[in-house]
Amino acid sequence: MFERFTHAARQVVTQAQAEARLLNHRHIGTEHLLLALLSEADQPPARLLNEHGLTHEGATACVKRYVGTDELDADALDSIGIDLAAVREKIEQTFGTGALDGPRGPKSVTGHIPFDPRAKKALELSLREALALKHKHIADGHILLGLLREGQGLASKILSESGIDPADLRTRLKPHLADRG
Questions:
Q1: Residues 157, 127 share a domain
Q2: CATH number for the domain including 162?
Q3: How would DSSP label each residue in 11-33?
Q4: How many domains does the chain have?
Q5: Closest listed residue to residue 37, CA positions, set 143, 152, 178, 175
Q6: Which domain range does residue 143 map to?
């Protein structure tokens, strides 16, 4: 299937892995595909999503709110009376500098990051969307159509929360796919 992906679609898949790493997530979900689409600001899917009021920053905030990151939140700990800087300093005095850090920092995700079932489904649906449009390639816009059609993952929740009408987005996206086919 990936041999049918355009350069832009491959960039989305690669960037989805980068988005998961940035959030220290151990899987690639629909939310990471959405973030990857939004990170390509000059591409039609990002422009359309931005026109509907959804930005990369806003979507990242939603992901953090729903899923979080695997990093310690100094403000949250401070609110319950724990000074993270003081704890880190004491641990490093006892166990040595960098004792809390792995080889690439605290709890860094390394190696291959797998797609979760919903993200896999969205990518499969992007192929179905391309075939339904009689396209021989899968573009980044097809990935967005796959996310819309999947309808269950965190990306769908973020799109819905942003007030985006999937039918309207689909209608506005299709002409861009024809231009790129």
A1: yes
A2: 1.10.1780.10
A3: HHHHHHHHHHHHTT-SSB-HHHH
A4: 2
A5: 143
A6: 2-69+109-180
Angle, vertex CA 139, rays to CA 46 and CA 181, nearest 5: 115
Distance CA 42, CA 167 (A): 22
Q: Which two tokens stand for residue 54?
A: 């959804």
Round to whole Å and give the CA distance between 159 and 167: 12
DSSP-assigned beta bridge partners for residue 102: 105
What does pTM read for this prediction? 0.75
Task: Mark whether 51 and 132 lie in a shared domain.
Answer: yes
Higher pLDDT, 153 or 2: 153
Residue 5: the pLDDT is: 86
Tell whether 58 and 77 lie within a shared domain.
no
Tell me, yes or no, whether 58 and 119 share the same domain.
yes
> How many Å apart are CA 170 and CA 142, to the nearest integer?
10
Structure tokens at 5: 């992906």
The answer to whether 109 and 26 are in contact (CB under 8 A) is: yes
Query: pLDDT (tens digit, 9 = 90+) per residue, 68-114?
Result: 654 555 555 566 677 656 776 777 777 777 655 544 444 555 567 88
At position 121, the amino acid (one-letter code) is: K
Residues 145 and 76 occupy one common structural domain: no
- Dig out the tokens for 57 from the structure: 């920053």
